[in-house]
Amino acid sequence: MCHLKTDNPVALQALLSETLFIPKDEEESKASLIRNVADGATGREEEEFIYQGDKTTGVLFILRYPDYPYFSPQAEEAFVKTLGALSLSFENVAVVNLANPHNPNDFKRIMQFFQPTKITLLGVEPISLKLPEIAHNAYMKGRVATVFNTFSFEEMFADVQKKKMFWNEFKTFIGI
User: Domain of life of the organism in this record (predicted)?
Assistant: First the structure.
């Protein structure tokens, strides 16, 4: 039997059931090793963004949740239900969290990498991406993609009216 040697965090996670800790000084250098893996000509291709889902469908959700990899548990449940109501799922949309320090907060790079046709900003102000002002629950059509600006799920949990406004406009947006 040969001995496997790796410092790849994804491989280690798959092989081990215990939680591993890295010294703080090594953590940042190891963080650069963590990448999404996508099918490519070589079978593995390092990605510029860390994201969840499938970027090839053209549907992208951009959020900024500093306390979670993507959503809070309650927000993730609401997101999955919202997608399901429109025959979508995590597998056929892409979700990127701009609070992840690896992900560039640059709209041009987002467009180049994901090549979306429909973008939903969940609580991310358009101005933070150097986009023109877009009212909440409104969308702006660009040359390549349409951007829908709406509230974060936490804002919708706190205000049922925001949730209703989101749902009515989101159904129209996805149907475009």
Answer: Bacteria
Convert the pLDDT of each residue in 145-169 to its tens digit: 999 999 999 999 999 999 999 999 9
CB-CB contact of 39 with 74 (8 Å): no
CA distance 36 to 51: 7
Task: Give the closest residue to 108 by CA, choosing from 81, 74, 145.
Answer: 145
Render pLDDT for 73-103 as a digit per residue (tens, 0 to 9): 999 999 999 999 999 998 999 999 999 999 9
CATH superfamily, with its number, for domain 51-175: Uracil-DNA glycosylase-like domain (3.40.470.10)
Q: What is the pTM of this model?
A: 0.73
Give the number of other CB atoms < 10 A from CB of residue 102: 15
In the three-class reduction of DSSP (H, G, I as helix; E, B as strand; rest coil), residue 120 is classed as: strand
Locate the domains of the chain by residue range: 9-46, 51-175
User: Looking at this protein, which amino acid is placed at residue 1?
Assistant: M
**29/14: higher pLDDT:** 14
The token duo for 154 is 């936490």
